[in-house]
Amino acid sequence: MKKLIILTLAVLLAIPSTAQIYKRYEPSRYHREGSEHYFGLRLGLNLSSISSENVDIDADYLAGLYLGGVYGIQLAYRAPVWLELGLGYSEKGGIARPEGYKMKYRLSYLEAPITVKYSFDVSDFRIQPFLGGYLAVGIMGKIKDYRLHDASKSTFDSFRRFDGGLRLGCGAEYRMLYLEVGFDFGLANISKDDFDTARNRCFFFNAGVNF
After folding, report:
1. What's the whole-model pTM score?
2. In the predicted model, is pLDDT for residue 9 greater than 80?
3. Residue 186 CB: number of other CB atoms within 10 A?
4. Which candidate, 90, 86, 44, places its Cα nearest to that of 69?
5. pLDDT given for residue 153 in this prediction
6. Are 201 and 166 in contact (CB under 8 A)?
7. What is the mean pLDDT of the chain?
8. Beta-carbon neighbour count of residue 163 at 10 Å?
9. How far is the C-alpha of 200 from the C-alpha of 181, rounded, in Å?
10. Taking the CB of residue 75, how many other CB atoms lie within 10 A of it?
11. Sequence-distant (≥ 6) Cβ neighbours of residue 97 within 8 angstroms
12. What are phi and psi of 17, to 5 degrees?
């Protein structure tokens, strides 16, 4: 799975070098005439879960925070195609209920998404479907076991810190304002147990500004 993630991201990263021979497609970007790139800030909500055949790990949706920034660059002149790189703080995890008791898994990551966007105009808006991937490293987290009177321990005693997968979704922009909805499909096995598999799943809703 790691090889597939790395290969996918390598292909996306190679696109700018092949696109250097092209010229800009559109004469302007947002309010900056002649701009071929942009910066952005993002604040949003994650609705994440953990998918596993182990009932102690398989977890339903848990709300979390996303906060980050992005950098985008236009790739080609014959189509409004953009490469967007990001870096942010992302809270994932889930709530499991094995044998009727509650366990909450909170996994906080430093996350680096990379996506390719296609932009087209709809009235005064630009609609931007996107596809790409993400890599992430765990920086903190806790497991709360409500069976043991809210006893907690580090999430990464049970889960690996590395995560990565595919990302898809759609954004919409109006002037400098930007909204997006998407889904992260984790491919990396984050379980430390060699006999178990666990993968992150996450719907995200982000708002922000581009400049």
Report:
1. 0.83
2. no
3. 24
4. 86
5. 86
6. no
7. 87
8. 25
9. 17
10. 21
11. 60, 103
12. -70, -35
SS3 52: coil
**pLDDT given for residue 19 in this prediction:** 45
Q: Please, what is the end-to-end C-alpha distance for the chain in angstroms? A: 36
Rounded average pLDDT over 68-75: 96
In this model, does residue 11 exceed pLDDT 70? no
Are residues 182 and 169 in contact, defined by beta-carbon separation less than 8 angstroms?
A: yes
Distance set, CA 16 to CA 12, 75, 77 (Å): 8, 6, 12
| 198: nearest Cα among 99, 103, 115 | 103
Mode of pairing for the β-strands spanning 199-210 and 37-51: antiparallel
Q: Whole-angstrom Cα distance, residue 129 to residue 151?
A: 43
Q: Which of 206, 201, 211 is CA-nearest to residue 60?
A: 201
Distance set, CA 194 to CA 104, 149, 189, 190 (Å)? 22, 29, 10, 10
| CA separation, residue 66 to residues 22, 44, 145 (Å) | 34, 5, 24
- Give CA–CA dist 91/95, Å, rounded: 13
State whether residue 157 is helix, strand or coil.
helix
CA distances from 15 to 10, 26, 27, 115 (A): 9, 19, 21, 11
Stated as kind and residue range, the H or E segment containing 151 is strand 151-154
Strands 151-154 and 162-174: unpaired
Provide the 8-state DSSP code for 65: E
Q: Look at the chain and count its residues.
A: 211
Burial class from Cβ neighbours inside 10 Å (0-12, 13-18, 19+) for residue 143 reads buried
Better-predicted residue by pLDDT, 41 or 30? 41
